[in-house]
# Entry
Amino acid sequence: MDIVFYESKTKEVLSTHIILAKDPTELRKKVNASNEPLIIVQGGNDKINKESTSMKNVDILLDPDTDRTKDFMHHKNSGLTIQTAQLANKNEVAIGFSFSRMLDSTNRPKQIARMHQNVLMCRKYNIDMVLANFSYEEKDQRDLYALKSFGQILSMRTDEIIDALDFASRRLINKTKKINHAVKRS
# Structure
C-alpha cells in the first residue's frame, strides 16, 4: 500500500501496510508486532475502532465507517462514536479518509455523508485528520489538487485540508525526534 503525501507540492510516496483484524486481541498482536514507520489500522466494527483508538502505537485509524450497512434513524452510522473520538484525541490517533476507497464505492453519496459526519466529529474533538490516496496501484493515485477538492467536498476548512495532507510527514518527523531524544538520554 502506498501513501502519497505532498510536501510543498513535491510528491512523496511512503509504502506501508494496513493492519486488518477481526477482533481486538488479533489487532493488539498485529500492532505490537508491526515495525512499520506509520501504523495504520483499517476501521471496522465498533470494537476494532475503539481498540485501535485506545492504543498509543496506532498512528491512523483508516475509514472507521467501513462495513457499515444501515444508518440510524436520525444520524449516519459513521463508525466514530463520542467515546472513540475522545480516545483518539487522548492517544493522538488520526482519522484517515481514503480517496481511492471513495472512488471504488458503489454508493458514493452515502459514503461521502458518513465521511462528512466523521469530519465534524474530528473537528469537535480536535482529532487530526489524514487525506491521502491509500491506493494499491499507481493508476489509482491522484494529484494534490484532487485531494484538496476531496477535502472541500467533505466540508473541511482550508487549514484542515493543509494539515490533513501534511500529516504523514509531520508524524514521521515527530517519531524520529522522539527516537533521537531517547538515544541521547541513554
Summary: The mean pLDDT is 83.
